[in-house]
Design brief:
By secondary structure, this protein is mainly alpha-helical. The chain contains seven helices and two strands; from the N terminus they run H-H-H-H-H-E-E-H-H.
Amino acid sequence: MPDQRSNINMAVPLKYWRTKRGYSQTKLAELSDTSALTISQLESSKRKARGKTLGKILDGLKVTRNEFFAMREATEGGTIPPESSSTALMDAAGAEMPSREATHLRLSNLDLELLNRILNLDFDNKLETLRFLQSIRER
């Protein structure tokens, strides 16, 4: 068994289980006794989880470690396969978007906090924020 203190990259399974459960990053953070910023950073691979954080998230998602990394739920007869093993990007209408090469960005903690706060806004507030930011840029 791997050392519980080793860093664990869990971006893909975390996003899979969070969306499967229908949780927002904020809701999962509440259920996991962690912050939405932590969930966001883990999903975007900006941060790796340690054993304690992983344990909290597994409890919040109500899955075992094996189910989490296999991205399959245990059943009496075996496992239920995930809906899709593809990590393709989808647009707002659910259509698959063409893949792009990964672009690596280095964001400051302030940038991450701003992004996290914007991502957790409802649609109307996001639109209002976008208009405000556009007005600043035009000055």
